[in-house]
Amino acid sequence: MSKVAKAPAPYVTVEGGLPGEDPREKFRYLNMLLHSPGGHGKTTFIASACDDPRTSPILVADMEGGAALRFAKKDPKTYTIRPVRSVNDLNVLYEYLAKGDHPYKSFAIDSLTEIQKLGLFEFVYGTKPDKTFSGNVINVKIAELQHWGKSKTQIEMLMRYFRDLRIHTFFTTLTQTVKDGVTGKITMTLALPGKQADEIPGIPDIVGYLGIIKTKENPNERVLMVQPDGKIVCKDRTDALGNMVVAPTVTKVLDTIWNAYGITE
């Protein structure tokens, strides 16, 4: 079993000065958040990590239950799909990856939209949901302000901890359309509640929207949009991907960034 990459050698650029961080190392590992409506290819994009030795094998935390459909044609040696039924399941996966003695080069959570709902559910009902039901009656409870605050902190910490592992990390959410009550402006953003939709995009280096456009060659061409246009939430801290990536795969994105920064194996 291979280990997570060791920390790079000290990077000293100022004669007689202190070692610092090599800025190019920032983009050696992808950390991406993908959002789109269902069926636009988020899980398919993540599954393409199986095809590249730099990102394979990948460990997938599957909350939505659809990952198996997109990974079924991949080599079984290039991925592991782990169902998530509690937030603690994610804690276990993080502790496993953080130790470093594992074969995985990538990790994915599919999706944060469902993980946020699960975490909020556990804050409201506890970690034993079987007590929520009595016969055919659901004992409905209302989430209080403190529950929403805990949920926001939980998702932020979860993303930061996994992002900082020295492996490639991918997160997905659904997309929601938000209309400003004053200006009428419509924005397509993450399907997360309240301030989470505004603040979570600040954590990863790349926030991409997976859309479908019509071209001469393909009436249903998938594209990864990474530059904000005032309507769709996205960004690219690498400044390497242009406005969009046509027919996106993990390999295409990684090649583009590595070439831009002169990163090699």
Please sum up the structure shown.
With 265 residues, this protein is α/β, with parallel strands linked by helices. The protein is built from 7 helices and 12 strands.
Q: Would you tell me which CATH topology applies?
A: Rossmann fold
Beginning-to-end CA distance, first to last residue: 19 Å
Derived structural class: alpha/beta
Q: Under the CATH scheme, which class? A: Alpha Beta
Supply the number of structural domains.
1
CATH superfamily: P-loop containing nucleotide triphosphate hydrolases
Based on CA inertia axes, which overall geometry fits? globular
Rg, Cα atoms, Å? 20 Å
The largest sheet is: 10 strands, mixed
Number of helices: 7
DSSP strand tally: 12
Mean pLDDT comes to 88
What does this structure look like?
With 265 residues, this protein is an alpha/beta fold. 27% of the residues lie in helices and 23% in strands. It contains seven helices and twelve strands. The chain has helices at 42-47, 67-71, 87-98, 112-125, 145-163, 196-199, 250-261, and strands spanning 31-36, 58-62, 79-83, 106-110, 133-134, 137-138, 168-179, 186-190, 206-213, 221-225, 235-236, 244-246. Strands 1, 2, 3, 4, 7, 8, 9, 10, 11 and 12 form a ten-stranded mixed β-sheet that branches. Strands 5-6 form a two-stranded antiparallel sheet. The longest helix is centred in the middle third of the chain and has 19 residues, at 145-163. The model is unreliable at 1-5 (pLDDT under 50).
Features:
265 residues, alpha/beta, Rossmann fold, 10-stranded mixed beta sheet, two-stranded antiparallel ribbon, 7 helices, 27% helix, 23% strand, globular, disordered N terminus
